[in-house]
Amino acid sequence: MSTTPNPPVSSDQRNATPGLSCKLSANPQDALSSPAGKKPAPPCTLVIFGAGGDLTKRLLMPALYNLAVDGLLDDGMRIIGVNHGERETREWCDDLHTSLQQFAADKASTFHAGKLDDNAWNWVAQRLEYMAGEFESDDTFAKLKQKLDQSTGGNAIFYLAVGARFFKPIADRLGKAGLLKEGDGANGGFRRLVIEKPFGTDLASARDLNAHILSYAQESQVYRIDHFLGKDTVQSILAVRFANAMFEPVWRREYIDCVQITAAETIGVEGRGRFYEQTGAFRDMVPNHLFQLLGIVAMEPPNSFDAEAVRNKKAELFDAIQPLTPDDVVFGQYENGPAGVGYREEPDVAPGSTTETYAAARVFVENWRWAGVPFYLRTGKRLAVRRTEISVQLKPVPFRLFRDTPVNALTPNVLTLRIDPTHGSSFDFNVKAPGPVMRVGAVQSSFNYDDFFAESANVGYETLLYDCMLGDATLFQRADSIETSWRAVDDVLHPGSGGAVAVRGYAAGSDGPAEADALLARDGHVWRPLRQNTPGGKP
Ligand code: BG6
């Protein structure tokens, strides 16, 4: 993860074609130019298991294309896509090209790059190779071994862009075929394994998967992805906290009343009914994405920006999370409402399903900095708005200076870090409202990324892929943190005699179940409104 500061851009730069601002060489074989201070990653063969899948099309290829545009890939790079089913490399390439063009043209896509740059695409296309192979057949791995010649110094990254049921069988066969052994190559090549979420479904399964993988590879070879950490706006939280003098002094229990972390979605289960039925909103989002946000917002400052220094601080934080009980969570399921049909009517969902599509949780971090400060987490499908953000709410002022306004009637100071779909932050504070009498009025000051920085068609996987090629694991999950996170929620997933968490109904297109409000009301808190965010003022 680069720490070079970027200068603010001029309006000319802002208006330049997003993502295509760098100079491209005429010959696709030539190295493309890279942003200042960044070097192309070392050569490697990237083996993608799941070459025909959605992740490859929607995220990995756009990210590789963007890295090629920025000249951050080595000329010697190779990309081998493995999937079951015979097909020609040409056909795979054409399919990928068509999807890339569609995403680039789609304004709603994070890869809204406009027109694709032929030069950059050709550069990527020339390095693609399709290999037919069953994920659970030893032949596939023998064939792969032959392909991994010395052309990339023996360096190889195995990316598991496949359903979680294939993680173990693939890792197993890679290990048995000796493909994870480092130092095989002429230059002592590296071997890395990238694994997508979900990493296990509870503490026992995560432990088992870790033990299995670590019987073939060192921890330093394993890159467990949580794509939320690939988002610039999430990485920026570290910059907000540790590159400014004004936040850290108040970033503690003495000043902070509560922290709210929201990942609200308007989409439903999008044809993933079968996966969702077994997973539910809590497993899908809470011990991974939302805990990662919690980790970044609450961890202690590391001594350096070194991967282990950062990951040690995050591990300490996860370790301090007080295990959740069923009493700390509220589950909901969307029913027919203004935004569409209920979850039970979605394809591949049981008519009597009790799977939750909404989860809210109250989390306490038991350490010196955060003891007693509630962190409220919520996530859900088919809610009124799409919004991922973190709001840090400060305590009221200590004394009633303005006679007609008791301190508890003042709008609290809230710093909101906006992650998606808008990118930026806002700060709610109080001023004197204009007029002859002293009246306090709440206002909001806002910052938007695109007012200061060139818009980019970054899909969030660029940094993750580039870092993995560099061997920088800062943004990846370590085995211990994954297990500590699952441990913190294990009593919710496997409730004892107290029984499972009840699932409350909410209308599709609403703010979620009313019971989630009661979770905060117990502590005298309220959720930040989902639909509007301007305190006391104009909506
Ligand atoms: C995925 C979940 O990991 O994250 C999805 O499986 C969810 O259910 C998605 O929709 C949210 O990610 P983002 O980046 O769109 O906020």
TrEMBL record:
The active site is at 289 (proton acceptor). Residues 1-40 are annotated as: Disordered. It catalyses: D-glucose 6-phosphate + NADP(+) = 6-phospho-D-glucono-1,5-lactone + NADPH + H(+). GO terms for biological process: glucose metabolic process; pentose-phosphate shunt, oxidative branch. NCBIfam families: zwf. HAMAP family: G6PD. Gene3D superfamilies: Dihydrodipicolinate Reductase, domain 2, NAD(P)-binding Rossmann-like Domain. It is an enzyme of class 1 (oxidoreductase). InterPro entries: G6P_DH (IPR001282), G6P_DH_C (IPR022675), G6P_DH_NAD-bd (IPR022674), NAD(P)-bd_dom_sf (IPR036291). Residues 47-235 form the Glucose-6-phosphate dehydrogenase NAD-binding domain. Residues 238-528 form the Glucose-6-phosphate dehydrogenase C-terminal domain. Its EC number is 1.1.1.49. Catalyzes the oxidation of glucose 6-phosphate to 6-phosphogluconolactone. Residues 9-32 have a biased composition (Polar residues). Pathway: Carbohydrate degradation; pentose phosphate pathway; D-ribulose 5-phosphate from D-glucose 6-phosphate (oxidative stage): step 1/3. This is Glucose-6-phosphate 1-dehydrogenase. Pfam families: G6PD_C (PF02781), G6PD_N (PF00479). One of its GO terms (cellular component) is cytosol.
